[in-house]
Specification:
207 residues; 36% strand
C-alpha cells in the first residue's frame, strides 16, 4: 500500500507530458467525509478501479469483475499504487503505449464512512485497519450505497503494492440487503458525464 512512498510509485509510472492524468501536485484533503471513486478502465484487460481516500491519497485496488451486489459474491481486488485525490475526476483516454493506456470513465463516486472497530467496539483509524488487512466502510455513492469490506488474504503490509503478490477480497457485508450490481462495463455510463467508454474514446481519444 506504500504509505511511505506517497505518490512516488504513481508518478514514476507516468509521463505527464503524454498522459492527461493528474500529477497530484494540487489537491489536499478537504473537510468532511473521505471520498471514494470507482472507475472503469478499458486497458489491456477491462477492469474496475476501486479507490478510497485515506488522508491525502486514494488507496487503490483493481477489481476485475467490479463491486459485488450479493454478500456471498466475493470479488478479487488487487492493490495498485496510491493515486492523487484529483484522480476522482479523471475520465479520458490514456494514450496507447503509456502506463495503463486505454479509456477511463468515472462509474460512481461519493463519500464513505469508515466503520472499522476494535474488539471493544471502539473506532479504529481507517489507515491502520487497512494496514492490518481488514476494513469496513459504508459507501454513499450515486450507485453504490451501504456496507462493504476489504480483506487481505495474500501478501502483507510490507509487500510492494503491485508486485503481483498481494490480494484482497471486496465484499458486500451481510445484513445491508443487496447492493448495486456491477454493470456490463461496455454499457455503463459515467456518473460525471453520462458517457460510455466508447463515447469517451471517440470524443477524447487521439485523432
Ligand atoms: Mn486501472
Amino acid at each position: 500500500m506504500g504509505d511511505a512512498n506517497g505518490l512516488r510509485d504513481y508518478r514514476g509510472k507516468r509521463d505527464f507530458g503524454r498522459t492527461g492524468e493528474p500529477s497530484g501536485r494540487g489537491a489536499a484533503a478537504g473537510e468532511g467525509r473521505p471520498r471514494f471513486v470507482v472507475q472503469i478502465h478499458d486497458a489491456s484487460t477491462l477492469h474496475f478501479d476501486f479507490r478510497l481516500q485515506v488522508g491525502d491519497v486514494l488507496k487503490s485496488w483493481s477489481v476485475p469483475k467490479g463491486p459485488p451486489a450479493d454478500p456471498s459474491d466475493k470479488r478479487l481486488a488487487v492493490p495498485t499504487e496510491d493515486h492523487p485525490l484529483e484522480y476522482e475526476e479523471f475520465e479520458g483516454v490514456i494514450p496507447a503505449g503509456e502506463y495503463g493506456g486505454g479509456t477511463v470513465i468515472v462509474w460512481d463516486r461519493g463519500d464513505y464512512e469508515p466503520l472499522s472497530h476494535d474488539r471493544w467496539g471502539r473506532p479504529v483509524d481507517f489507515a491502520e485497519s487497512l494496514a492490518h488487512g481488514h476494513a469496513r466502510f459504508r459507501l454513499h455513492g450515486t450507485k453504490l450505497r451501504g456496507e462493504y469490506a476489504l480483506t487481505r488474504f495474500r501478501g502483507g503490509p510490507d509487500g510492494a503494492a503491485d508486485d503481483g503478490e498481494a490480494a484482497w477480497l471486496l465484499v458486500r457485508t451481510a445484513g445491508g440487503g443487496p447492493g448495486h450490481a456491477a454493470p456490463d462495463p461496455r454499457r455503463a455510463r459515467s456518473a460525471r458525464t453520462g458517457r460510455t467508454l466508447a463515447r469517451v474514446a471517440a470524443e477524447d481519444g487521439e485523432e
